[in-house]
Each structure stands twice: as structure tokens, then as C-alpha cells.
Design brief:
The protein has nine helices and 13 strands. With 311 residues, the protein is an alpha/beta fold.
Length: 311
């Protein structure tokens, strides 16, 4: 097998055609450098230099090897540099899981800021429902996810913000005129919901069960944009999380109503989540720092006191 150290010695000598000038660059003695070149020639079974008096000249084989060896040595040096950067959390690959609304409302500016500060960190996105994202963490398809944790889990997490449930009510609807309403008041109202598996749907279904209310669902979707568009058009009442409304404060044809159960706001903590059973990449740390800077509270998010917890 070729010795990268010997190849680098050859490249440095070949570029200078002088052992005496190459030795200081490599920080070895001339005699040691000559032995490296001789050893490489023995391994390859060819002569790399013709020695004409005190001058060195590349042989045909040496001339052929030089660009290939130089490319290989450069790649090895680049790899070594990248590995050191990876150890410092300045380079590497991070697969991030998030719902579509989290990608739009939170991750978009985070990823742009992360790239500006750490251009050698590569990111890829895994999109799906909350339950799907937690499954991706367990299989290793995602390294970190922005998700709501179930009551029983084995993950580690960093809390980001509270996501509270709101009803987006068309102006034409006769539903309550106040800024908040009990979830039971939505009985018999036409509801637009996210599909099962999303945090918003799980919290809403649980609250409905506690209130003894069976929701009248006229649409289930993976897209908050779809729900909001239909609510704004007057088709029904959309149930969404405050996290999905962070960049949608200006809505036409509808208004926001905070949902409660027995007077308590409905919501759940959204966190950055990872699996401690898997090796933790050093690039996770800069990503978590960027998240902490951007994850400001959304609409009606808890600013003090304990967040509401559904039993």
C-alpha cells in the first residue's frame, strides 16, 4: 500500500527538483528525505528521478506520477483539515427533521444564519408529521428534529417555545366573538384539521375527548397553508398552532381565537430533540445555538410561569 507521507515527500521534491530545498519544507533531514524517495521507488518498482550530477530530473514515470500524487496528497490534506473542523463542530452533515410549518416559520432563517456562520456545515431536511419525525430519529434518518415529545420517551431535548392552539375563524362564522373560547364550544362547527400524527392534532383530539366533544371534521390536511386558505375563504374553522402563525399575523377574512380547556390554554412545548443512543455530532451544538437565537415565542406563547400541560 502506498504511503501518503512518502508520496508527499515525492511531490515536494518533484516540485522543487531539489532534496536540499524540499527538506526544510517537510521538516526532515536531507538524508531522511532521500530514504523516503528511495523507499517509494522500491515500492513502485520504478525510478522517479534521474540524478544528473547535482541536479534532479523527473523520469517519464515520475512525470506521469506527479499530478496524480499531488492530487491525492491535496485530497488527504483537505480531508485532514475537514476532520479537524468536524471535531470542532465547524463542518459536517446534519439531517434535520421538521414539520412543513416549522420549516417555514422557524427553520428557514435558522438555516440561512447557520450557513453564513458555518459554511462547511451541510444540512438536509426530513419533512413530516411529529410522530414521523420521532420515528426518523430512532432509525437514524434524522440527527435532530423540531418536535413535541410524548409523555414517555427516551430522547434528549432542548426546549424552544410553547405552541398554543388557535382557531382561525372566518368573519362570516357565528362562532364566539371573543379572543378565546373553550374547545367544547367548537361542537357542530365545520373544522379544518391537520392529519393525525401532528402535535396540533394530538393536543386537539385529547382536549376534545376530555371535553366530551366529538369534532365535526370536514377536512384533514398535511398543510397549514391549506387550512388557513380555506378558513380565510370562509369554508370552515382551521385549528392551528401558534408556531404556524408566526409569519402569518396578517390574515384576511378571518380572526384568531385562542383555545382553552377548563380555562387553561391548550398547547405543548416544542423542542429540539435527538436520540442519545446514537453518536452525537459536534455540528449539533452550533445548530442548537442558532435555534435558541431564533426560537422567540410565537403568538400567545408563555412568557412566564409554567406552560400548560394536558393530563
Amino acid at each position: 500500500m502506498l504511503d501518503l507521507k512518502a508520496l508527499r515527500c515525492f511531490v515536494v521534491v518533484a516540485e522543487r527538483l531539489s532534496v536540499s530545498r524540499a527538506a526544510p519544507v517537510l521538516h526532515i533531514s536531507q538524508s531522511a528525505l532521500s530514504r523516503q524517495i528511495q523507499g517509494l521507488e522500491e515500492v513502485l518498482g520504478v525510478s522517479l528521478f534521474d540524478r544528473i550530477g547535482k541536479r534532479l530530473v523527473l523520469t517519464a514515470e515520475g512525470d506521469d506520477l506527479l499530478p496524480r500524487a499531488a492530487s491525492l496528497v491535496d485530497q488527504a490534506l483537505d480531508l485532514s483539515t475537514r476532520l479537524r473542523s468536524m471535531a470542532r463542530g465547524e463542518a459536517g452533515l446534519l439531517r434535520i427533521g421538521a414539520t412543513p410549518q416549522t420549516i417555514e416559520g422557524l427553520l428557514s432563517p435558522v438555516l440561512v444564519s447557520l450557513r453564513a456562520r458555518y459554511p462547511a456545515i451541510e444540512t438536509s431536511l426530513v419533512e413530516g408529521s411529529n410522530d414521523f419525525l420521532l420515528e426518523q430519529l430512532q432509525t437514524g434518518a434524522a440527527h435532530v428534529a423540531i418536535a413535541a415529545l410524548p409523555q414517555q420517551h427516551s430522547f434528549e431535548s432542548q426546549a424552544l417555545f410553547m405552541g398554543y392552539l388557535h382557531a382561525v375563524v372566518p368573519e362570516c362564522q357565528t362562532f364566539t366573538s371573543g379572543n378565546s373560547a373553550e374547545v367544547g364550544a367548537l361542537a357542530d362547527q365545520p373544522l379544518l384539521l391537520l392529519r393525525k400524527g401532528f402535535m396540533t392534532r394530538k393536543v386537539f383530539d385529547r382536549a376534545c375527548a376530555q371535553a366530551g366533544m366529538r369534532p365535526r371534521v370536514i377536512l384533514e390536511s398535511d398543510s397549514t397553508q391549506t387550512l388557513l386558505a380555506l378558513a380565510n375563504a370562509g369554508y370552515g374553522i382551521a385549528i392551528v398552532s401558534s408556531a404556524a402563525l408566526r409569519h402569518r399575523l396578517a390574515m384576511e377574512g378571518s380572526r384568531l381565537v385562542a383555545l382553552t380547556l377548563d380555562g387553561q390554554a391548550l398547547g405543548q412545548m416544542i423542542s429540539a430533540v435527538w436520540d442519545p443512543a446514537r453518536a452525537r455530532s459536534a455540528v449539533l451544538e452550533p445548530f442548537l445555538r442558532e435555534l435558541a437565537e431564533h426560537a422567540v415565542p410565537g403568538i400567545s406563547c408563555c412568557r412566564s410561569g409554567s406552560p400548560p400541560v394536558l393530563p
